[in-house]
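User: Watch each token:
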Amino acid sequence: MGTLLLVLVAIAVAAAVAAVAIGCIAAFATAVGNKQWWWVAGMVVFAPVALLYCLFNRQLAQWPATLLFRGCAALAVATLLFLAGRAFLANNPLPTPAAMHSTLPFPPSPKARANLSPGATYAIDGGDSFIYYGQVALNKQMAFFHFRSQALAVQEALSSRFMSRFGVQHASVGAALRSGAWQFLGRFPWAAELEEEPVLVQWPVGTLEVTLWKGASALGTTQVHDPAIQDLEVIAAHDAIHHVPQRLRADFSGHDDQGWVGGSVLRHRLQKQALAARHPDQPWHALPAQWVAV
């Protein structure tokens, strides 16, 4: 936010200064061409006299007047943008390493709101005395690094590979920040892979046929036991507080025996089999006909 504001203000100021400078030169040339020596002398001594010259000589200096007045208007707009941006940043300061809580538990932040801009990075309390790290992808999914620590180590996390990427309910991210389950670390450059749309699997309840999606495009259907899709993520909306910590523990450890945590097609198949074996008398856990065992 702060960087974008500075870039916009810099562009506006550069354009305005250029317009004003050209307008002053054009007004000076017009006065010289018309032998208006008093005006020439005034502009030599004090350049802004060019504005007065254009006001009093609209017929002669129509083109310089347009440049000068538009340039001054642009400068005024740039100044207002700068002042408004400075006031906004003063009332909504970005977190800095000094302001962050470096160990668990994170303190609640009652006024916090989720930042879902690409590159927004979060620290997550995993519920196992470790801090996990996630970053927002271009499509608003969250990608999580294969790294955890007991004290904040942001750069180490950012230099690690990703272990998983999935959807997190947007409203729950704000709730997690306000409760202290998550902590916002700032925006950082993101890897090129976060700009790509992953292929996801839509698996309706009670069926073996699944649909493959890439962004908003359906790629086709296949069977859930298709070997080519076993590592693809099954579409699900995870709650930042109640689902994500458990999911990250399972992803980091590689253990899938922690109840429902979401994840790949293979993990979902294993979980469904485990539930069916554990509750053989409950029809809602029964496996569909023609189920292929893992």
Q: What stands out?
A: The chain has a mean pLDDT of 83. The chain is about 40% helix and 20% strand. Residues 199 and 217 are 10 Å apart (CA to CA).
